[in-house]
Amino acid sequence: MIRQGELVEIEIQDVSSDGNGVGKIDSQVIFVPHTVTGDRILAKLIKVKKKYAQGRLEKIIHPSDNRIRPRCIVADKCGGCKWQHIDYGHQLEIKHNQVKETLNRIGGFTEFEVEEILADTDLAYRNKASYPLGMSDNGNIKAGYYREGSHQIINLNQCPIQDERLNPLLAEIKQDLQELGIPIYDENTKKGILRHLCFRIGKNTGEILITIVITKPSNYKLAQQAPLWLERYANVVGVTLNYNPRPTNVIFGEETELLAGRLYLKEEFAGLTFTLRTESFFQVNTNVAESLFTWVIDELNLQGHETVIDLYCGIGTLTLPIAKKVQKVIGIEFDKIAIELANHNAVINDIDNVKFMEGKSEVIFPELTTDADVVILDPPRKGCQPEVIEALLKMKPRKIVYVSCHPATLARDLKMLCENNDYRLERVKPADFFPQTTHVETAVILQSTTTH
């Protein structure tokens, strides 16, 4: 029988959905972070339960062929990336298997194919970065990501997964903030002003927004500094302040103030022009998102006469490209700023067959009197509310497109949609929006079993 504190030698046989290596001693499952399938390791057991144990990697006895040298010098400390030690090809294999296994285990699906995972570059892909700010022991400003499992900031001057054009801004603006002498917010005392340093870049246009999150509205020193950043960096088109006074882990507050330039950047996506703000949602991996949305549109084989409803539509990232292919689209989104941007994006792209509605999908969608040929779902990680599932089964659109960032809630919702044979699982396409992490995006197309 294994005991807490014991050193054990194990072989890692798999990788769990939360990214930890999985090994066994007799019938006891052992989870060990920072390992990969094929590693032979020495681990110290730090928690032992009846059915499983958690271990800490002490030594790699024999490395797996899937193990590589991390390309980030703080990969063993920073919580931003969990899989820097895993060969990218194997990362894709793990994610592909995760989607298949979860749809089977939770969804109960048995006869289906998971298509090849969409992927692009495994580094320099993020078009947005939000760095919490802190103070080091010697009084210097820190900006970076939290150490895994804590709120201790790992100080960064560059990050290999963010767009390379943002790296010079991180180090230099951090130094500017140091010289301005504005107090840094302390999570423990709830005192201070500066909370986060945020960047967003248009992957295809190069336009950049700088946003500082603060606890108090307006700031004279930052107002004076903002035009200097605009002058120094040719690609920076706007500097904004976001006001978030709440003691919360949520990064952005509800109010944003323009300091210099404009509130938004322009991005080219799926053949259209989009305006984005730092605090509005947009997929962080532009290239793979565009590939996935193109796949969705191609697979729908739209003929031009269809009516489409897009739930959780955001700024219209998928709504507007689809509007170019159909007769009518309705987009529903809870976030007020996203709706404003969606309407603006429709106007600048001369798209007039789309209607955006502000509100919760679970409230608006069940009350719609419009029938749809296709309904698109792109909910947050928690998945769809029961009211949405019930309304879908009542409306019975010919096809449902479900885009998900969480295989478990995807499988749960698909099971409810398909369990009475109202729909069948037609296509499953995973996409790697988040290389070096455990997260995977999946697009699923459901086909109604009723002839329309």
Kindly list the characteristics that best describe this protein.
452 residues; OB fold (Dihydrolipoamide Acetyltransferase, E2P); Rossmann fold; 7-stranded mixed sheet; 9 helices; 23% helix
Structural description of this entry:
Residues 1-59 form the TRAM domain. The active site is at 405 (nucleophile), 405. With 452 residues, the protein is α/β, with parallel strands linked by helices. The chain has three domains: 7-67, Nucleic acid-binding proteins (OB fold (Dihydrolipoamide Acetyltransferase, E2P)); 91-121 and 285-448, Rossmann fold, CATH 3.40.50.150; 128-269, Beta Barrel (OB fold (Dihydrolipoamide Acetyltransferase, E2P)). Helix content is 23%, strand content 30%. The protein has nine helices and 22 strands. It has a seven-stranded mixed β-sheet with strand order 9-8-7-10-11-12-13. α1 runs parallel beside α9. The radius of gyration is 24 Å and the shape is globular.
Q: Share of helix among residues?
A: 10-25%
Rg of Cα set: 24 Å
Order of strands in the sheet with the most strands? 9-8-7-10-11-12-13
The count of strands amounts to: 22
Can you tell me the CATH topology of the largest domain?
Rossmann fold
The number of distinct helices, counting runs of at least 4 residues, comes to: 9
Strand content: 25-35%
Binding site for S-adenosyl-L-methionine: 283, 312, 333, 378
GO molecular function: rRNA (uridine-C5-)-methyltransferase activity
EC number: 2.1.1.-
Protein name: 23S rRNA m(5)U-1939 methyltransferase
